Amino acid sequence: METRFLETFLLVAEHGSLAEAGRRLGLTSAAVAQRMQALEDEFGTPLLSRSGRAVAPTAAGHAILGSARNLLEDLRHLRALVLEGSMAGEMRLGAISTAMTGVVPPLLSRMRQTAPAIDLFLLPGTSAELYEAVRQERLDAAITVRPPFPLPKSLCWHPIRSERIILIAPPQEEDGDALELLRRYPLIRYDKNNWGGKLGERWLTDNGAQVNNWVELDQLEAISVLVSRGLGVSILPDWTPPWPEGASAARIPLPGPATFREIGLIWPRNSPLGRIVEVMREALGQTA
Question: Which residue of 7, 144, 174, 237 could cross-link 127, Cys pair, CB 3.0 to 4.6 Å?
Answer without folding.
Answer: 144
